[in-house]
Amino acid sequence: MARYVFITGGVVSSLGKGLASAALGALLQARGFSVRLRKLDPYLNVDPGTMSPFEHGEVFVTDDGAETDLDLGHYERFTGVAARMTDSVSSGRIYSTVLEKERRGDYLGKTIQVVPHVTNEIKEFLKVGDDEVDFMLCEIGGTVGDIEGLPFFEAIRQFSHDKPRGDCIFMHLTLLPYLAASGELKTKPTQHSVKELQSIGIAPDILVCRSEHPIPDKEREKIALFCNVRPDAVVAAYDLNSIYEAPLAYHAQGLDQAVLDAFNISPALQPDLSKWEDVQDRINNPEGVVNVAIVGKYTQLEDAYKSIKEALTHGGMSNRVKVNVEWVDAEVFDHEDAAPHLEGYHAILVPGGFGERGTEGKIKAAQFARERKVPYLGICLGMQCATVEFARHVAKLKGADSTEMNPQTRYPVIDLMNSQVGVANKGGTMRLGSYPCRVQTGTLASKAYGKTKTIHERHRHRYELNNKFRDRLSEAGLRMSGVNPDLDLVEMIELPGHPWFVGTQFHPEYSSTVDRPHPLFVSFVQAALQNHSQRVH
Ligand code: GLN
User: Fold this and answer.
1) pLDDT in tens, 137-153
2) Ligand 1 pocket check for 16: Cβ under 6 Å
3) What separation in Å is there between the alpha carbon of 506 and the centre of ligand 1?
4) What's the rounded Cα separation, in Å, for the pair 218 and 213?
5) CA–CA dist 137, 24 (Å, integer)
6) 353 in ligand 1 pocket by Cβ < 6 Å?
């Protein structure tokens, strides 16, 4: 049976709970344990699928087709353990399950209440797969004291009592603000936050304190005393150059040791951190830099393209270069020349997206990359824009478009499948999760993927390359380098004769991890590097 670590946050949001959880997962793995990470989100949306990326950052998609919080992406990138549908839940999902059961009469006439019905449902969620791993790490979204978080806190309190003594521990993240005027780190907000937790019956075993300054021993002891934790369970979390330094930094601060101590586990061996040392070395000592433009819509909020940014970093690590990402707002050149905005980058990436805004700009970015022979990676909408561009300007299908942008177009090169037309429930028609794709031999894609001929990649979209136009586009020179063997849908396109121009209907970024940088990102960064060196010489 798994042991449980519950991770909560206090004082302020955005302390990096997700990263701390992911780093702890990686450290436990380095000590030979198996882990699974979970996220419990107190908001009332059933899942983040319908939330704007401006609100909540990227929607992360699991292999089994769940639209989840972006923290699951961190978990996966750090531990290599593929997240599942059962690793992410929100209040909305819990309540809708409880209400469904109520309507079905499952509760046999009882009055339905937060305790025990909602809390029981949360506890059921926590238990799924508890016989598969040594440690289950469960992060509670939000901050202690939030009204909507209360049922989750109550549920984890009960859960720790239902389990044998010593099977669950609580780790709480807080902030130690620094007052420049007095030159001090203040511990009071941490004390208050712990009091708040204690008032709902939870006593933290470990405190992770974010601080911009070193925490003096005196303050550490004070926190331990006032918050009722052991001094070595007060773990400092300092700002880092890169998130990938977190496992080593947390290890240096004693986090994994404190967790094992709290469980009374005496490890026989020191952890094997060689992988993270190598990662740190690659991050801190790159042998070059490439500049990649991400031409998108949500460029003010980098979290909207979190997995893409990280996958580029992984591609950079594997090529030993730093990938400098510049965010370019596609809407700016919807109606003007794109060249002045795109010249100088070593590669261009057009990410996924929904709706019309900025699409003409993205189509221009694809045209620029095609004509100027700049490496191009188009993901989902980015592939669709590249297809539209090719149809309009190379296949001479004037006015070609996606029916998402222009339902009346004469040449709907991107369209819904027949089975989806007229379905009203947004989300209901989305192709979500992992689907197989046959990689055609002799293509750039097959070079990138190596020996693997059938790949599995994650999807999140409604529209597809329209099979009615496949022949026209192929004859004009567009190569369909990957096809779904079951549904006969185009999954990848490329341009023979171009140094590196690839479009994917799927999202390769979701499955890139530190251990397994995604082959397309590795190859894309390599192409950027080649472009860079050609310009230099
Ligand atoms: N809007 C497009 C579709 O639904 C692309 C989606 C995406 O890029 N994730 O097909």
Assistant:
1) 999 999 999 999 999 99
2) no
3) 9
4) 14
5) 9
6) yes
